[in-house]
Amino acid sequence: MNKVKTTIVITHKLNDTRVGILENGRLVEFYIEREGIENNVGKIFKGRVENIVRGLRGAFVNIGLRKNGFLPLTEIPEEIFGIDLEEEEKVKKTTKEELPINIGDQIFCQVVKEQIGDKGARLTSFIHLPGKYVVFFPTISRIGISQRITNKKERNRLKEIAKKLKKPNRGLIVRTAAENMPEEVIVRDYHYLEGTWEEIEREFQKSRAPRLLYKEPKLALKIIRDLYTLDTEAIYVDDRNLYYEITNYIKNYTPELFIKDKIILYEEKEPLFKKFKIDEELEKALDREIPLKSGGFITIDQTEALVTIDVNTGSFASEQDPETLILQTNLEAAGEIARQIRLRDLSGLIIIDFIDMREPKNRELVYQELKWCLANDRAKSDFGKLSRFGLVEMTREKIRPSLFFTLCEECPACKGKGRILDRYEVALKIESQLINKSEKLKGKKILLLVSPYMYEFLTNEWNDRLTQLIKKIGIHLELKINHKLKYDEYKFLEEL
């Protein structure tokens, strides 16, 4: 993992909490928690199986949300646990022909992907409980060490600690934060998670589905748990109550990390996000085009499942040979693309179109730069090689809606298409409607309501044609602006 200076900036207003993560002074991650809008990822439920779809190899489970969640059958442990069955002999390992669950069963479910649009939440029954130093798995017999811990001696030490902690049919992964931490600190974290799971099990036994059994801490505390380390430069908080909450959380939960001077209550007049230029960065992160310092630029086009990123030289020019110029642009673009991927939380299939390079060694340099710049990304990614045409295909796990879908809403005019009907085409539709009903309208007064956008077109570019048409049909047409109409909308009133 790249060594960087990390700063955590937390602002709390009346209805929301916003967190910016800065690396070396630049915004790389952004999170928002709005009052009344729950984040369901990580929550554990007692769910009831409502439907099993063999074709999808999964089940739809009622967990009490607006839509039933989807539980793939591959996400159910081989040894069924937590199911409310009347006959004990039904609890057994399944064959390939058998289904591990039945309609009406009550089962542990954890949300791994937020419900997005018409899709319900993605669920798993392989429960995991994240702590500061370990992730506890009550249903998987495994031991893992974070891949970001590269020192062989330290990995072996942590593995021995994990072996001592692990119990039959349970497992744990040692997180990056555990590196160089004393054994007793890691043991304490594990026992805390184990106790939490025992409380969840007790609640499961005495409740009926659907029932929420566990949820993650609020956003600010979760960020502190997952990101705050002794290497963190500082935590800035502009809300006094939240400042004390964070301070007490670190004191009580991870006292070994408590350094009072690193937790700063921000009380200056200038807004916290403005001071760190976070608002400015967020505005840029919603733009399609991102300029590069050299004069080149990248463009990002995003749909729900696919993201395309294009690199252009723009005004970047020098006396160097073209290959060197292109390499410099691509290397700079790789760093900015990595930052934008994290900041915008781009996910799904991402296709990056770098400028073509002749030399294979240059293509490899750009490819490695992109991977290196994404080394600190906490989301899982998979990369294809950079092709001779400059294309890189990569996938990045999708857990929640991206920044674009979080901070923006669908355009009421284009309905997400990104384009609206040409004014000429709208005028043709108006003309066609008048001609089709000309016999009925002859001699009558017609009121046509249009948007300011269409009014300007009809009274200027289309004026002569419209005048000839109403004279030919023999009607009196009055044109008026209606500001409530969308750009390409119109409405006939009165006689029509």
Describe the protein.
Strand 17 (297-302) and strand 18 (306-312) form a beta hairpin. The longest helix is centred in the middle third of the chain and has 24 residues, at 183-206. This protein folds into four domains: 6-38 and 216-278, ATPase, nucleotide binding domain (Nucleotidyltransferase, domain 5), CATH 3.30.420; 127-201; 288-404, no CATH class; 423-494, Ribonuclease E, catalytic domain (Hypothetical Protein Ychn, Chain: A, 3-Layer(aba) Sandwich). The protein is α+β, with helices and mostly antiparallel strands. The model is unreliable at 84-96 (pLDDT under 50). It contains 13 helices and 24 strands. It starts with 5 loop residues before the first strand and ends with a strand. Helix 3 (219-227) packs across helix 4 (240-253), helix 7 runs parallel beside helix 8 (360-373) and helix 10 crosses helix 12. The strands form five sheets. Strands 4, 5, 6, 7, 8 and 13 form a six-stranded antiparallel beta sheet that branches. Strands 16-17-18-19-21-20 form a six-stranded mixed beta sheet, with helices on one face. It has helices at residues 152-165, 183-206, 219-227, 240-253, 272-275, 278-285, 322-344, 360-373, 403-407, 423-436, 438-441, 452-459, 463-473, and strands at residues 6-12, 16-23, 26-34, 44-53, 58-62, 69-72, 106-113, 122-124, 129-130, 134-137, 143-145, 171-174, 211-214, 234-237, 263-265, 289-291, 297-302, 306-312, 348-353, 381-383, 391-396, 445-450, 476-481, 490-494.
Topology overview:
Layout: E1 6-12, E2 16-23, E3 26-34, E4 44-53, E5 58-62, E6 69-72, E7 106-113, E8 122-124, E9 129-130, E10 134-137, E11 143-145, H1 152-165, E12 171-174, H2 183-206, E13 211-214, H3 219-227, E14 234-237, H4 240-253, E15 263-265, H5 272-275, H6 278-285, E16 289-291, E17 297-302, E18 306-312, H7 322-344, E19 348-353, H8 360-373, E20 381-383, E21 391-396, H9 403-407, H10 423-436, H11 438-441, E22 445-450, H12 452-459, H13 463-473, E23 476-481, E24 490-494
Parallel strand pairs: 1-14, 11-12, 14-15, 18-19, 22-23
Antiparallel strand pairs: 1-2, 2-3, 4-5, 4-7, 4-13, 5-6, 7-8, 9-10, 10-12, 16-17, 17-18, 19-21, 20-21, 22-24
